[in-house]
């Protein structure tokens, strides 16, 4: 066992003869305590719910530190796992569902509620702190004897011995809570389920495209979603470009790419093996497109001869 | 430093949590105020457990944690279902029982 593990249970929660804590614990308390109060005030005054959730997470982690410092190592770990790891993450999930940017309404439904609430909270703080702080307690015992052989083991003896019935009841409570959450968030289906078969039948009934749409164009110089494919007769197929790009007007012109291919086929683009000339070096044929080049046709005019789309590329 | 400081800190946190419940309108923040109150009670229990040299306080704090977890699950489910039907997470909008 490492020295830390053997030292820690004796050091954590140890008290001096006069019932005072160790200096290290005092430093921890006076560091974390004011920060915790500040974070709690952050929960009270934060405009955004996410900031409030972060403040509460800070408070809970600090509380875990304090538990460990007070000799409750088991509770410290459970605090981190259950509260910070599960409960607050659940809060963040629900914030994500409900909408992060929703802030409080500033309309008072009960008149003067804000001042009354602040006054009540202040009064509660004064009364609680006054009573708890000014009461006389007996000399503190410390957990040195109770934590034998170690804190988790001693707590386990109590939970599974003296309080085993409560443990079972709490298990039933957890199962009930999980079921309750399932039932509460269950949403009945209002419309019949639309599956793959129904979708296909509906598409055929409305006279749509029976099979999947053609893929976008693949050219020697360009292979992207925005270039329409060419049909067997050389017409650009509008439906091959994704609908979103068409709606946005980001569809590329097939002619621009076909013109470049013509240049390549005319021998103007690629000169030697692996070397390329610039666009300016291309002079082109005097008689327009050379033999075997891609010809883009207008969609309205169906062509008689099939354009040799595959040869040469 | 005596152990009373922990108790005063727990009392302050509890009061701030209660004030949050009283003042805030967002149901989720109100819920976090409830969580803060439960946590401060746990700190109180742990401190008293150390004062008396008796682990029953820690066992009770453990059960408080478990019950709080169950409470959070059900409460957040209620908030989500209310938000689905009314499109609002404000506690002021849930006034169907008002005449």
TrEMBL record, chain B:
Q: What class of enzyme is it?
A: translocase
UniProt keyword list: Cell membrane, Membrane, NAD, Oxidoreductase, Quinone, Translocase, Transmembrane, Transmembrane helix, Transport
| Catalytic reaction list | a quinone + NADH + 5 H(+)(in) = a quinol + NAD(+) + 4 H(+)(out)
EC numbers: 7.1.1.-
Q: How does it sit in the membrane?
A: Multi-pass membrane protein
Do the record's keywords include Membrane?
yes
List the subcellular locations: Cell membrane; Membrane
Q: What does this protein do?
A: NDH-1 shuttles electrons from NADH, via FMN and iron-sulfur (Fe-S) centers, to quinones in the respiratory chain. The immediate electron acceptor for the enzyme in this species is believed to be a menaquinone. Couples the redox reaction to proton translocation (for every two electrons transferred, four hydrogen ions are translocated across the cytoplasmic membrane), and thus conserves the redox energy in a proton gradient.
Q: How is this protein named in the record?
A: NADH-quinone oxidoreductase subunit K
Source species of the chain: Cellulomonas wangleii
């Amino acid at each position: 066992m490492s020295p830390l593990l053997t030292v820690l249970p004796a050091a954590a929660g140890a008290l001096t003869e006069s019932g005072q804590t160790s200096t290290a614990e005092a430093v921890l308390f006076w560091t974390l305590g004011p920060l915790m109060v500040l974070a709690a005030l952050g929960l009270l005054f934060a405009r955004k719910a996410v900031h409030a959730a972060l403040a509460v997470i800070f408070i809970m982690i600090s509380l875990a530190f304090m538990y460990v410092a007070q000799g409750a190592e088991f509770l410290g770990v459970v605090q981190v796992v259950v509260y910070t790891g599960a409960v607050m993450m659940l809060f963040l999930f629900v914030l994500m569902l409900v909408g992060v940017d929703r802030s409080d309404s500033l309309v008072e439904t009960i008149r003067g509620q804000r001042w009354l609430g602040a006054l009540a909270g202040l009064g509660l703080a004064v009364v609680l702190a006054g009573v708890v702080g000014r009461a006389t307690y007996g000399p503190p015992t410390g957990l040195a004897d109770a934590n034998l052989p170690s804190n988790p083991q001693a707590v386990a003896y109590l939970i599974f011995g003296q309080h085993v019935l409560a443990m079972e009841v709490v298990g039933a409570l957890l199962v009930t809570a999980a079921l309750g959450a399932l039932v509460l968030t269950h949403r009945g289906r209002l419309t019949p389920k639309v599956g793959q078969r129904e979708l296909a039948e509906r598409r055929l009934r409305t006279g749509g495209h029976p099979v999947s749409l053609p893929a976008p164009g693949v050219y020697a110089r360009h292979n992207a979603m925005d270039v329409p494919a060419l049909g067997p007769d050389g017409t650009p197929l509008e439906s091959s470009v994704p609908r979103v790009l068409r709606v946005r007007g980001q569809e590329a012109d097939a002619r621009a790419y076909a013109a470049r291919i013509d240049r390549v086929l005319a021998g103007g683009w690629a000169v030697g093996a692996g070397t390329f000339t610039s666009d300016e070096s291309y002079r082109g044929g005097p008689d327009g497109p050379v033999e075997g080049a891609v010809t883009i046709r207008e969609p309205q005019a169906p062509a008689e001869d099939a354009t040799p789309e595959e040869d040469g590329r | 430093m005596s152990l009373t400081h922990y108790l005063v800190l727990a009392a302050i946190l509890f009061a701030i949590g209660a004030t949050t419940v009283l003042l805030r309108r967002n149901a989720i923040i109100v819920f976090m105020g409830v969580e803060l109150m439960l946590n401060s009670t746990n700190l109180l229990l742990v401190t008293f457990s150390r004062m008396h040299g008796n682990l029953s306080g820690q066992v009770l704090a453990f059960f408080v944690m478990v019950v709080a977890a169950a409470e959070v699950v059900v409460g957040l489910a209620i908030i989500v279902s209310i938000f689905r039907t009314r499109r609002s997470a404000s506690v002021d909008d849930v006034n169907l029982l008002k005449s």
